[in-house]
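Final report, section 2: Outcomes. Of the targets proposed, MmgE/PrpD family protein is the one most frequently requested by collaborating groups, and we therefore present its record in full.
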Amino acid sequence: MGTAEEAICRFVSALQWQDIPEAVKGCARRCFTDTMACIISGGKSVQFRAAEAVIDQNHASRHYLAGQGLEQVNLYDSVLLNACAAHSEEYNDLFFGRPGHPSAVLVPVVLGLGFSQNASANSVMESYVAGLEVMALVNQALLPNAHKMGFHTTSVAGVVGAAAAAGKLLHLPQDGLERALSIACTFACGLRANFGTLANALHVGNAAAAGLRAAQFAAAGFYTGTDLLSGSFLTCYGGSREQLEILAGSLGQTWAFLEPGLLIKKYPCCFSNYQAIEAALNITEMPGFSYDRIEQVTCLTSENHFMSLPVFWPDTPYRARFCIPYCVAAALLQGNIDEASFSEKMLHNTALLRCRDRIRYDVDPRQRGEEGFGYSRIIVVQDSGQRFEAVSWPREEERAQCWDEKFLKNKFLNCCAWTFSKTQAQRVYDVCMHIDELREISELLCVLCRNEMPESG
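The predicted structure is given below as tokens.
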């Protein structure tokens, strides 16, 4: 049977785009397209600008950077910056029903390396799929213990997935892939305590760039122990070796793109806010509800959500993306959540601050000791004594809605509006959605770098 590492590397080596099920290909195209939107949008973020400021620009090679076109920067740094951008606005995809943001880590790796090698579009996409399936199984083997211990599994599992994706594009042999995974294990880190801080985006940037470098080191002949992934790596992060072996054995038979599947996000904030937002929005549609008459708001959520987002009220617009009471108050006030909900103007909105003083936030007593995302319960009492209550769970319909092509296209165009004209954004969208029809990935680079100024107004 062999080791889990051997099974993983056999899968990565053998995977060919033409052999991937059509349903998986369709999911991969959509998630790739959505991640490109997040990279482009993230080019205007504080995190991207700050990271860009510390990157040494004295390099001869040129790469596409988020929203910037071609810039003088090396491959490693371009991957780091684009991954930071992809995660900077909390708008990037995640595994449905469990923590982990795969595409923000992997797409910058396969794009950057693919551009450098002038690789075929199909080889880029099959490397993306391979990396995501590997990241998914490592992520699942780490949960729930790694999350409870305070680690950010997007970063911890992501560096392994990135090494697998990069190793495939570099055509590493079986033993080279095994070395790449082991080297990646020594680079893994990321702390949940950084949720809501600008360093959160660096988790993703570091995972992408370190995974790429692990594969490059393996290609250069660096070697380590061959069983770090299933051995000391899992031990450090509280993972299950037995589960890893079972999952590795199912690679190519079950696909993470389909189960648990991926959620393309409709709100630019941490997913742990989503059920509370949905419950609050349900309340705004109830007869008799009036924001101006709110006397008290109670936000009750699962232990998992509360552990991830313990802050009662944010002190920065970015931290607001990680704050359930804030998102509930904003949803009750506006009747929606969008990018403008996380601005300095909204953070200091007088009506919003009045609601803040009337909020109670806690774990739902009915969910203590329960695993998983669970549900969120919002209770609003008005000055008349009228009571409104709504409960929201993660729902299959929500995942289906987010796969709707009209939704994805609108999100893409909105994300690109700051840097591309609508015509150019539409062109980039069309190319991304048919990425496997390109002969070489450099054709996408040409489309991305024909910047047309957005229409005024």
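The two ends are 62 Å apart (CA to CA).
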